[in-house]
Amino acid sequence: PKLTVAVPFTPATGPRLLVRPDLDRPTIAKRLLADIEAYTASHSLSSVHALFLDEPAHAACEAAGWLIRRDCQFHWTNHNYPDFDAYLDTFTAQKRKKTRRERRRVAEAGIHFQ
Fold first, then answer.
1. pTM for the whole structure
2. If you count DSSP H runs as helices and E runs as strands, how many of each does the chain have, helices first?
3. 34: which residues sit within 8 A by CB, 6+ positions away?
4. Which residue from 59, 60, 68, 54 is spatially nearest to 33, judged by alpha carbons?
5. What is the 3-state secondary structure (H, E, C) of the chain?
6. Helices 25-42 and 55-63 meet at what angle, rounded to 10?
7. What is the 8-class DSSP label of residue 3?
8. How far apart are CA 24 and CA 35, in angstroms?
């Protein structure tokens, strides 16, 4: 098993090493990471994964010698499309066709969305 440092069900960047504002953040973050490493070793965990780190936690992990994960996120914005077909109209013909085929296959599998 692995240890995960994250907020459950939240794939969004944010603070993961919580340090009170009146404390020395780099020093406390270094101590937190050392304690996480000790806990991982003492419980025979295979690894630690820190997900969607804010910049201070990212810097602390990098300074502690942790391997840094490179992420890429995609965010979709509804530009006031009146319906899904209006959204599909912004696609190329080939992508529109593939998207419709994928949605048809999902429906044929008995999966429905509201």
1. 0.63
2. 4, 2
3. 64
4. 60
5. CEEEECCCCCCCCECCCCCCCCCCHHHHHHHHHHHHHHHHHHCCCCEEEECCECHHHHHHHHHCCCCCCCCCCCCCCCCCCCCHHHHHCCCCHHHHHHHHHHHHHHHHCCCCCC
6. 60
7. E
8. 17
Return the ∠ at Cα 94 (arms to 90 and 95), rounded to 5°.
50
- Asked whether 58 and 27 are in contact (CB, 8 A), the reply is no
- Name the amino acid, one letter, at 36: I
Helix, strand, coil shares of the chain, percent, nearest 5, are 40, 10, 50
Q: Alpha-carbon dihedral of residues 3, 9, 11, 16, nearest 10 degrees?
A: -50
48 close to 64: Cβ distance less than 8 angstroms: no
* pLDDT block averages, 10 residues each, the chain of length 114: 90 91 95 97 96 94 92 83 94 96 94 82
**Can you tell me the distance from the alpha carbon of 104 to that of 111, in angstroms, rounded to the nearest whole number?**
10
Closest listed residue to residue 45, CA positions, set 7, 6, 4, 9: 4
